[in-house]
Specification:
This protein is α+β, with helices and mostly antiparallel strands. It is built from 6 helices and 11 strands. The protein has helices at about 5-20, 35-40, 105, 120-125, 150-155, 165-175; strands spanning about 30-35, 65, 75, 80-100, 110-115, 130-135, 135-140, 155-165, 180-190, 200, 215-224.
C-alpha cells in the first residue's frame, strides 16, 4: 500500500474512533423543539422549557410525581414526546454505556445503571458484577450468593435511558463516571414517531425484563 493509501486508512480509522462509543467526544444535545401549537404560545422563546418536577430528598428512593397541566408539547429529533410522570432520583452510578447507532441513540446517547438504598454500599457492590449492553442492565453475584436479597437488588437499581433536555444536561451526562453520586430531575416519557415507532418508560421500580427501563427526559443532571 502506498503512502496515500496509508494516510486514507489512518484517517478512516480516526474518524471511526471519534464517533465510536469509546470516543471522548461529547455528543450534542438532541434537537428539541416546540410542537406547532406550543410554539405559537411561546413566540419569543426559542428554547423549549423543561419544568422541574418535585425533587427527591437527598438519599431517598426515587420520587415519581404527577404531570402538571399544561405541559409544553415537544418534539425530540422529530419524535413526539409525552410526559408520563415527574421523576427525581438521587443515586449512585453503577455503570454507564454509550450508544451511537439507531433511532434510540439519536435521542438518548447514554444509559445509566443507577442504584439507591443498599445498592449504594461498597460492601454490597463489591460482591456484584454489573454490566450493560444492548440497552439492558444485568447483574450477577460471586460465589457466596447475593449480598442482599435479589428482589431488593431489582427494586433498588435500574437501567435508565437518558434524554438530555439541553446542552448543559448533555455535557453533564458525557462527564459521568461509574461510582459517582448523581441527581437527575426530569420526566418519565413516551416517545413516538409517525411511522409507528414508540419508546415508553416504565412507571414502576418493581418491574424486570422487557419494558422495565426508565426513559428519562432530563432537565438537570448533577454529579459529584
Amino acid at each position: 500500500m502506498g503512502m496515500r493509501g496509508w494516510v486514507l486508512l489512518g484517517m478512516s480509522l480516526a474518524v471511526g474512533w471519534w464517533f465510536s462509543p469509546w470516543s471522548p467526544r461529547v455528543p450534542p444535545a438532541p434537537r428539541i423543539r416546540f410542537s406547532a401549537d406550543a410554539a405559537s404560545a411561546h413566540p419569543t422563546n426559542s428554547n423549549p422549557p423543561c419544568p422541574s418536577p418535585q425533587r427527591v430528598a437527598d438519599g431517598a428512593d426515587p420520587l415519581q410525581s404527577p404531570v402538571p397541566a399544561p405541559f409544553p408539547a415537544l418534539t425530540v429529533e422529530g419524535m413526539r414526546l409525552e410526559p408520563l410522570a415527574g421523576f427525581s432520583v438521587d443515586a449512585r452510578v453503577l455503570s454507564r454505556r454509550d450508544y451511537r447507532l439507531g433511532r434510540e441513540a439519536d435521542v438518548s446517547p447514554t444509559d445509566l445503571a443507577l442504584g439507591w438504598g443498599r445498592m449504594r454500599d461498597d460492601q454490597v457492590l463489591s460482591r456484584l458484577v454489573i454490566e450493560q449492553r444492548g440497552r439492558w442492565y444485568r447483574y450477577s453475584w460471586r460465589d457466596r450468593g447475593p449480598p442482599i436479597p435479589s428482589r431488593e437488588i431489582a427494586r433498588s437499581s435500574a437501567n435508565m435511558h437518558i434524554v438530555p433536555a439541553n446542552a448543559a444536561a448533555a455535557a453533564a451526562l458525557a462527564r459521568i463516571e461509574a461510582g459517582q453520586r448523581v441527581r437527575i430531575d426530569g420526566w418519565l416519557v413516551e416517545m413516538a414517531a409517525d411511522d409507528g415507532w414508540r419508546w415508553r418508560s416504565s412507571l414502576t421500580r418493581d418491574d424486570q425484563g422487557g419494558g422495565a427501563c426508565e426513559l428519562v427526559y432530563a432537565c438537570s443532571i448533577l454529579a459529584e
